[in-house]
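User: For my dataset I need records formatted as: sequence, then structure tokens, nothing else. Please produce one.
Assistant:
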Amino acid sequence: MRLVKQLGTVVGVALVGNLALRAVEGSWLLTLVLGFATAVLALLAYAWVVRRTERRDPVEVGLARAGSTVARGVGIGVLMFLAVIASITLLGGYEVVGRGSVTVAIGLLGLTAAAAVTEELVFRGVVFRLLEERTGTWLALLVTSVLFGAIHLVNPDATVWGAVAIAVEAGGMLGAAFVATRRLWLPIGIHFGWNFAVAGIFGTVVSGSATPPGLLHGVTSGPVLLSGGEFGPEGSVFAVLAGLALTAVFLRLAHRRGRLVPMRKRADRAASPVTV
């Protein structure tokens, strides 16, 4: 019941926000404002429904050091993509063909904020967290990574390889970032920084969804394993390797901090109370 109520609340806010953003498509200012409004409302809704269904303070979205943690995550996400796009460029797979638009890039800040926050609340805040309680960290990471990759198959130019790449490089990494910190701010920041760098700075395709170019108008070409093909740079083997590297770093940090949850025995799971 917790899963249903929490997912329903957060997804409901995300759907309404997405409809509002579609309605103002073309207006960079309204996109910016509504995107951040969706992110804030989703966070408030998550905090409210967790308090109501679990009778606890939602510390994973607590405001202490939230700003600095998000900023650190944004930096990690941007630097990660810089390393990926530099590798692709060195092998001739990325080219800047023109300037983009500053106003479009500003609007993309709002779109990126809405997507990063709502997706992290759903996948790490609700699904991963509740699943981890029942199965332990490792199985929860595996399941949510697969789900995170699979959901990207609905994008216009999605590919099976792209979904696999997202599952490995993002699903695992963002889940590991949550485990290492036990807060959602770091994965939200990484998610935001990566997505904005992909579209808002370098003007490439995001997970098979083309967006108007941000600061730069970039194109990728060459073998799919190098450039990611129609799915965009997230389908590049360089992105997969970068994601795996960060996943290992975060999981090592989680282990050192004693934050990995072992798989629970069946008897323990059966004895667990059901919260409604």
